[in-house]
Design goal:
Order of helices and strands: HEEHEE
Radius of gyration: 13 Å
Number of strands: 4
Structural class: alpha+beta
Shape: globular
Oligomer: single chain
Strand content: 15-25%
């Protein structure tokens, strides 16, 4: 998964998840912070966030709150981050969900 296609797929998944989470009238923010040692992609939205009961298992395979989802998007995005010597994390604060 160490490829531009993997990065594209991970970025697309995180962005589409954020769009789905916000619904009509919601907001999604995308940012990239780069320095000599790392590139940090941040996808943030003002939707309701993941259900509390999924918070600890969100990155596990087949975990989803979407009726049409299969729960592999965040697992794949995590694998892509690891393949690029990074990691994927999330938090919820001030009414926003942020994946980094």
């Amino acid at each position: 998964m160490d490829s531009p296609d993997g990065l594209r797929a991970a970025f697309l998944n995180l962005t589409l998840n954020a769009i789905d989470a916000t619904g009509p009238g919601g907001h999604v923010w995308l940012s990239l912070k780069a320095d000599e040692s790392a590139n940090v992609l941040i996808v943030e939205d003002d939707g309701h966030g993941p259900p509390a009961e999924l918070a600890e298992s969100l990155f596990e395979s087949f975990v989803t709150s979407k009726p049409e989802g299969i729960g592999l998007g965040l697992t794949v995005a995590t694998a892509v981050a690891l393949a690029h010597h990074g990691h994927l994390s999330w938090n919820r604060s001030n009414g926003r969900t942020r994946f980094v």
